[in-house]
């Protein structure tokens, strides 16, 4: 999710100023995506430049609220209607890390896999505790965000299990092939030696 579209979605609820946007964004994502206030104001400046939001009159406390424009609503509607493609998502740093570990001398890839698995399981446990320790039982948006993180962590653990199994298969020495008659021939040879 881009911060740009996240802020547009929040402004669709009504005008807000930067600190409100930051707090509401973090609350909407269950505190799992903290925003730097600088990111918020930089994004608002770009949205204003692109005429997707406009500033309103400064409040009595000196805060400058923004509202979404019709162009911003059209942009937001298109974002919601367009499925994400895998090409739109960032590169998977973990997959790249393991690929590089395989070809880097002195790196024990199984240790890298084990360390990542342990960290991911700890994170999954934190997400699960977070999900069940909330006092916001009716907040479906928050629960869906936390569920997504739990499912992503579970998928990462399964993928790491697959990586470990692949490493074991790849590093195991090949077993000698047995032909159907080889055991019988060995017994016959042993019998011939005994009769000599």
* Low-confidence sequence ranges: none
In round numbers, the mean pLDDT is 81
Major sheet size, sense and barrel closure: 2 strands, antiparallel
Query: Based on DSSP secondary structure assignment, what is the total number of beta strands?
Result: 2
Order of helices and strands: HHHEEHHHHH
Instruction: Estimate the helix proportion, in percent.
Output: 55-70%
Widest β-sheet, arrangement of strands: 1-2
Shape: elongated
Beta-strand percent range: under 5%
Distance between the termini: 81 Å
Helix run count:
8
Radius of gyration equals 29 Å
What structural category characterises the helix and strand content?
mainly alpha
Task: Kindly summarize this structure in a few lines.
The protein has 196 residues and is mainly α. It has eight helices and two strands, in the order αααββααααα.
Chain-wise SSE layout:
Blueprint: H1 3-13, H2 18-28, H3 37-49, E1 53-55, E2 66-68, H4 70-81, H5 93-102, H6 109-132, H7 140-171, H8 182-195
Antiparallel strand pairs: 1-2
What does this structure look like?
There is one protein chain. By secondary structure, the chain is mostly helical. Helices cover 65% and strands 3% of the residues. The protein is built from 8 helices and 2 strands. The chain has helices spanning 3-13, 18-28, 37-49, 70-81, 93-102, 109-132, 140-171, 182-195, and strands at residues 53-55, 66-68. It has a two-stranded antiparallel sheet with strand order 1-2. The longest helix is centred in the C-terminal third of the chain and has 32 residues, at 140-171. The chain starts with a helix and ends with a helix.
